[in-house]
Fold:
Amino acid sequence: MSSHRIIVTVPPYNAPDDSFKELLKQCNLLSDKGTTRDVYEIPGENKVLKAVKKPSNYANWNEIVVWQSLSDQLKPLFAEIFSFSRSGRFLVMEQLDPLSFGEGHNSQRYPRFLSDKVKPQNFGRSRIDPQHIKALDYGCVLLEHDDEFAPFGCAPAAD
Ligand SMILES: Nc1ncnc2c1ncn2[C@@H]1O[C@H](COP(=O)(O)OP(=O)(O)O)[C@@H](O)[C@H]1O
Ligand SMILES: [Mg+2]
Structure:
């Protein structure tokens, strides 16, 4: 019996939603437990497709904005985003493995703006470095920081 490897193409970012709908047809549902998104496994890619199931694409856009604004120091704490559709309805993210039952993530520290840190299901294990736990649902953030004010119109202080 010959084994067939499915070859899929992830559309580049800003491609029309229809291109991602084609990709979706080749994917398998991983979770329909998300609040606003269904998540699909992209065959052979170690990536997931997050497809919005509610009228607003807010959660995907929030993840896009967060990912694009992360410093090099913070990026390793978050599942990488590879692509997203023009409307934000579809987003392609690094696939993480689920944590074992009862496994804490207390040994790693996460930025305060990540609002849902108490839920272990919002975190997963890197497939490249299994010791490494990353945030996979960062569609909701809290921007209130009482200690992070800076004046506008000023050049950053030189080190
Ligand atoms: N990058 C990922 N890798 C593996 N599983 C994921 C990933 N992102 C989401 N999932 C799974 O899909 C579920 C729903 O995704 P999530 O991002 O939490 O959507 P929502 O914001 O709608 O709650 C998660 O709880 C997790 O089980
Ligand atoms: Mg969630």
The domain at 17-135 is CATH 3.30.200.20 (Phosphorylase Kinase; domain 1). Helices lie at 17-25, 58-69. The CA atoms of residues 66 and 138 lie 8 Å apart.
